[in-house]
Specification:
The chain is about 35% helix and about 20% strand. The chain is an alpha+beta fold and about 375 residues long. It folds into three domains: about 190 residues, no CATH class; about 70 residues, Arc Repressor Mutant, subunit A (Orthogonal Bundle), CATH 1.10.10; about 120 residues, no CATH class.
Length: about 375
């Protein structure tokens, strides 16, 4: 039986936006009897960890991978750091601090703040205040939203993992504790080529610019690790007439892959949807517009390897079954808040009866992962 830590998607990490999405992504790839409770994921053998990693977003990673991840993710240059942190770099420049140095200073502030925290860690608000207090006066900025002066949000997030911070799973408010035996803030990057290889293996074929987009930086910033660490090992392919790259053994596997035969409801941040060549995954512009929005992306309906629609879910207390609604008890639903998960599917085309039945089972799975007692499937 495959364990969560054995999943290949964890080579890059699984985004958890909104909270709970990462667990849903794991469930989509594992058997229905796999234990995905907190103790199994975070306290067992080969534990996982939730951290702010790529683009400052919360991601689930193998705990054993974190040291290598932070070194591989460390900016190659000031230009790279500047591309990752946006306007925070302008603030740092105004204080006479180079972008990568500013990231290091903020990470050291995180490390110091966590060292002084109690056994319960620091809430996000407490961590922000403690990190801000340890920064040069010119670095924090006025925040109109919360009417206070504090460290830039993206800089705060990007510096958290280098500073040795991990999230307490399920905490409310969001709480951070130190990563045990953390070696400290990196001085230079190492192993970036392995991270780029993971991107190409899981989300390729791709280009340096697409891999850079996943990491939250510019194509120019990954040019050096791409050329120095892996370019000679890659094979160029053509995707709709455009050049892209992948590893030779992956090309052989793709050519020999059998047709996909499965139906899944995947969350908006599922690894399957993290590729930057979106027009290859979803060729129709109208369908891409429906799936990837500025805010509030829906999930994707996967039918035999193709994106066949979008879905959204909301929790309700009562159901009113009709001919368009299929109400089903979620098998193995966890004890917790009673309620029904209403799943609305908007297909891009006609769905067969077998696919609708499979989607009803998928709605059950999503409800079970969310700890609800039943699921309803509604087709718009």
């Amino acid at each position: 039986m495959t364990r969560p830590a054995d999943l290949a998607v964890l080579d890059l990490g699984v985004q958890d936006t909104p909270a709970g999405s990462a667990r849903l992504a794991l469930a989509a790839r594992l058997g229905p009897s796999t234990d995905l409770g907190d103790s199994a994921l975070f306290d067992g053998k080969d534990p996982l960890a939730m951290v702010w990693s790529h683009r400052g977003a919360p991601h689930l990673h193998r705990g054993a991978d974190l040291v290598g991840l932070v070194r591989a993710s460390w900016p190659w240059s000031d230009a790279d750091a500047k591309a990752r942190m946006g306007r925070a770099a302008t603030r740092l420049a105004g204080a006479g601090i180079a972008a990568r140095e500013g990231l290091s200073i903020t990470a050291q502030a995180w490390r110091s703040a966590l060292a002084g925290a109690g056994p319960d860690g620091l809430t996000k608000g407490e961590a922000s205040a403690e990190v801000t207090r340890r920064l040069p006066d010119e670095v924090p900025e006025w925040c109109r939203g919360c009417q206070s002066t504090h460290v830039n949000e993206l800089l705060f997030r990007l510096a958290s993992l280098p500073g040795g911070a991990r999230l307490v799973p399920g905490s409310s408010p969001l709480t951070f504790v130190p990563i045990a035996d953390w070696p400290g803030v990196p001085a230079e990057p190492a192993g970036t080529d392995r991270l780029l290889r993971a991107y190409l293996r899981l989300l390729g074929p791709g280009t340096p610019t697409e891999a850079a987009g996943f990491l939250g930086t510019s194509g120019r910033s990954v040019a050096s690790p791409w050329q120095d660490g892996l370019a000679d090992d890659l094979v160029e392919v053509r995707v709709d007439g455009r050049p892209a790259w992948m590893e030779p053994d992956e090309l052989d596997e793709v050519a020999a892959a059998p047709p996909a035969e499965l139906v899944r409801l995947v969350a908006a941040s599922d690894p399957y949807l993290q590729t930057r060549n979106r027009d290859l995954l979803v060729p129709d512009p109208a369908h891409r517009k429906a799936l990837w929005k500025i805010l509030g992306n829906p999930g994707a309906v996967l039918v035999d390897g193709e994106v066949a629609g979008i879905w959204r879910a909301k929790q309700t207390k009562q159901t009113k079954p009709n001919r368009q609604v299929e109400g089903r008890r979620a098998p193995g639903a966890a004890d917790g808040p009673s309620g029904v998960l209403e799943v609305t599917v908007e297909p891009f085309g006609r769905l067969s009866a077998a696919t609708r039945l499979a989607l009803a089972g998928e709605a059950d799975r999503v409800a079970r992962i969310r700890g609800l007692e039943a699921a309803q499937l509604r087709t718009a």
